[in-house]
Write a structure and sequence with these properties.
Elements (H helix, E strand, L loop, with lengths): L3 H15 L8 H27 L7 H38 L12
Length: about 110
């Protein structure tokens, strides 16, 4: 948790900086929406796991604790991947709507 939010904030700052460069402007939605989607996916999936864990009987606490930690890490990674992919497709749709082309400055328009 303490590492995820600073990394997301760094991506937010990077997206704002990318907006000032015409050549790399199309990358700003990707950086912002992919990182935000990964953050939201990680939180949603881990919250669903935490809500689902309350239904189980915890008779053997050491085995349950190990299984819980493995499950939490796995489901967080899965949620981050799902959020990243959804952010990627959202950014792709946004770039098409706005009309920002990929590497527009490298096109042969001489």
């Amino acid at each position: 948790m303490f590492l995820i939010l600073p990394l997301w904030f760094l991506c937010l700052v990077l997206a704002v900086v990318l907006l000032f460069f015409k050549k790399y402007r199309f990358l700003a939605p990707y950086v912002l929406l992919c990182s935000t989607g990964a953050l939201i996916g990680c939180f949603v999936f881990s919250t669903l796991l935490l809500l689902g864990v309350t239904k189980f009987d915890r008779s053997n606490s050491s085995v349950f604790a190990i299984a819980f930690l493995i499950g939490l890490v796995t489901i967080s990674i899965l949620g981050a991947c799902v959020g990243f992919v959804s952010g990627f497709f959202t950014a792709r749709w946004f770039n098409r709507q706005v009309g920002w082309k990929h590497f527009a400055a490298t096109d042969n328009q001489l």
